[in-house]
Amino acid sequence: MNLYEALLLRKSIRKYRMEPVDTMILDHIMYFSNKVNVYAEGIGVQFVLEENIEENKGIRGINHVKAPYYLLVTSELKEDYLINAGYMAQQVVLYMTALNLGTCYQASLKLNMMIRSGLPYDFVYGIAFGRAEKDIFRAPEKAKRLPEESLVVYKEEVSDTMKKIVKGALLSPSYMNAQPWRLVVYSNRIHVFCKKGILSNVLSNEKLFDIGVMLANLAQAADECWMDISFVKSDTVTSKQFKNNEYITTVLLRDEMF
Predict the structure, then answer these.
(1) How far apart are CA 211 and CA 179, in angstroms?
(2) Which end of the chain, N or C, is less surrounded by CB atoms within 10 Å?
(3) What is the DSSP letter of 221?
(4) Phi, psi of 241, rounded to the nearest 5 degrees
(5) Pairing relation of β-strands 189-195 and 122-130?
(6) Is the per-residue pLDDT at 178 higher than 90?
(7) Is the separation of the CB atoms in 83 and 209 below 8 Å?
(8) CA-CA distance, 134 to 14, in Å (whole number)?
(9) Would you list the DSSP string of 160-215?
(10) In terms of Cα–Cα distance, which of 105, 97, 172 is closest to 140?
(11) What's the CA gap between 139 and 107, in Å, rounded?
């Protein structure tokens, strides 16, 4: 299974067998985590593995999923660090899915002082993972997602390739399944927005992390279609005011060059 297939089939897993995963597989995960692509350059990020097979290792939280392992995402707190963290974390999650491991994002983990004091950067997000009690896959059409027309506006006719890329983006997981992304799609670019809260214009940490996760799925779908992507800020879009959404970035797509 490649990462694009993992993207299509992955689902969040909340029940795990509390048993060890082969050390070689854990080593592969940590090696991969050090090689993933970044959304923004110049931000220190490191993934930290915490084993929890015996439980009660100092990791708790609201809606806490009990798992044999947690991958902790730590980052420097610089501009776009949350989007960058989500972008990197989703690549690792897809890799673990391809290894037949269950995964579940954990937004509200509480770490004890011993764990927190040993982290290289600030704790951003957690990923529960391990061998699942049941099947870790589901068909794409079984994913509980908002209809495309509520998330995407097509400004012109687009290719089947672009539609495939958008589909990959829309399958992304999100905190409370909120799906905060809004996409404005042209033939060669996608303007990405994040939906504002009902009571506040400030975007939450979870929403920005989710945007990074979605962009990672989008990038993986583009790679599957032999398309290169780059992220840019459009001065034209940035200068506009939007009532319900905040502009994040523009994804430029082009055919891969050999």
Answers:
(1) 9
(2) C
(3) H
(4) -105, 135
(5) unpaired
(6) yes
(7) yes
(8) 10
(9) HHHHHHHHHHHT---GGG---EEEEE-SSEEEEEEEPPSS-SSPPHHHHHHHHHHH
(10) 172
(11) 25
Q: Taking 80 as the threshold, does the pLDDT of residue 247 lie above it? A: yes
What is the Cα–Cα distance from 51 to 69, expressed in whole angstroms?
Answer: 5
Rounded distance, CA 130 to CA 68, Å? 6
Amino acid letter at 191?
A: H
Alpha-carbon gap, residue 75 to 35, rounded angstroms: 15
SS3 of 248, please?
strand
Query: How far apart are alpha carbons 248 and 257 in whole angstroms?
Result: 27
DSSP letters for 145-161: ---GGGTEEE-S---HH
Both tokens of 54, joined, read: 């015996």
pTM above the 0.90 mark?
Answer: yes
Distance CA 203, CA 213 (A): 15
Distance, in Å, from the CA atom of 146 to the CA atom of 177, rounded to the nearest integer, reads 9
CB 59 within 8 A of CB 114: no
Distance CA 153, CA 155 (A): 6
